[in-house]
Design brief:
mainly alpha; 143 residues; single chain; 6 helices; 0% strand
Length: 143
């Protein structure tokens, strides 16, 4: 009797997973919308994803398909001469060719020399060093 009940639960779970994946495809990867459309609890969805490698792979495949669709739409916009889309592509995929925006900030003391810390109280210097260290900057290092 317990085996029969377990089989029914498994069949119901498998059917719900299938409904959730179909809804996920139709919502282009929107998990909340897919769960609502399939009548599936979101927490169950995440549990399935975290514990069922096949389900997880299907979720990833659906997500990749949505990205592919977005890339196709982006390329169409680029072909149509959409300047913003062209810039976006170059900034994201063309970095290796120099299409990046960067900001360089340099801190200097009077006359372009080093910042002088002699007149700063010791406790303030210690606090400044702690901030630098938390941000991965070692004393004497320039960035």
């Amino acid at each position: 009797m317990d085996s029969e009940l377990t089989d029914k639960r498994t069949d119901k779970t498998d059917a719900n997973k299938k409904k959730a994946l179909e809804a996920l495809k139709s919502t282009m990867g929107n998990i909340t919308a897919a769960c609502a459309a399939a009548g599936v609890n979101r927490q169950h969805f995440y549990t399935w994803r975290d514990n069922d490698p096949n389900f997880e792979q299907e979720v990833k495949n659906i997500s990749e398909s949505a990205i592919d669709m977005g890339e196709t739409a982006l390329m169409k916009q680029i072909q149509d001469g959409n300047t913003a889309c062209i810039i976006f592509l170059l900034k994201t995929r063309g970095k290796h060719r120099g299409y990046i925006e960067s900001t360089q900030v340099e801190h200097m003391g009077k006359g372009g020399g080093a910042i002088q810390f002699e007149n700063i109280p010791l406790e303030d210097r210690i606090a400044a060093l702690e901030i630098l260290e938390r941000n991965g900057v070692q004393p004497g290092e320039s960035r």
